[in-house]
Amino acid sequence: MKINKSNMNWHEYKIIKEERQKLNGHKSAVLWFTGLSGSGKSTLSVEVEKVLHNRGILTYILDGDNIRHGINKNLGFSPKDRTENIRRIGEISKLMVDAGVVTLVACISPYYKDRKIVRELLNENEFVEIYVKCSLDECENRDPKGLYKKARAGEIKGFTGIDSPYEEPVTPEIIVETDKQSLEESLNQVISYLEQKNILS
């Protein structure tokens, strides 16, 4: 069904983002964790959220797998569907930032252009791209969900890193190397960056 957008108007609000941030006592931003399956995106995002929560920061995690159980459950893994998956997550993230929430997104998001589109939805310094870098060999060794094994056996088609590309971030704000660093080291690296940029006080 074609939607006639001329029948829709943007509704302005009386409370703006900066007022919500002031009420919350902190800035809001998107922390976008990208990397191969098994690289440690979800694990790291959970630990970062725990630290932020303990500091009194309003947070919410949008995990790629969890989102696909709900709002994106109608999407597959074709390039078109992957792009739509990230578009929707990006739009939700923008709303969360407008609400004054530090939003942690953990999803493979394999295409550079899709991540760039999300970045452009937000204001300067509101999108923090965190490249959770890990070698394919190590991700396969970990294989927490058994997905690499299935992909190698031909049971999963279009699997990122095997028969579908992962485009590494060009200039991410943060690179953590989870095959070389401990979880604590990666966590401290992210928190230090947020402090330096005054996202955390």
Question: How would you explain this protein's 3D organization?
Answer:
By secondary structure, the protein is an alpha/beta fold. It has one domain (25-196): P-loop containing nucleotide triphosphate hydrolases (Rossmann fold). 42% of the residues lie in helices and 13% in strands. The chain contains 8 helices and 5 strands; from the N terminus they run H-E-H-E-H-H-E-H-E-H-H-E-H. The protein has a 5-stranded parallel β-sheet, with helices on both faces. Helix 2 (41-54) crosses helix 8 (183-196) and helix 4 runs parallel beside helix 5. The longest helix has 20 residues, at 79-98.
- Strand elements, count: 5
Helix percent reads 40-55%
Oligomer: single chain
What is the mean predicted local confidence, pLDDT?
A: 93
Terminal Cα span: 48 Å
Radius of gyration: 18 Å
Most strands sheet:
5 strands, parallel
Uncertain residue ranges:
none
Q: Can you list the strand order of the major beta sheet? A: 2-3-1-4-5
Write the layout of secondary structure elements.
Elements: H1 17-24, E1 30-34, H2 41-54, E2 59-63, H3 64-69, H4 79-98, E3 102-106, H5 112-121, E4 127-133, H6 136-142, H7 147-152, E5 174-177, H8 183-196
Helix pairs in contact: 2-8, 4-5
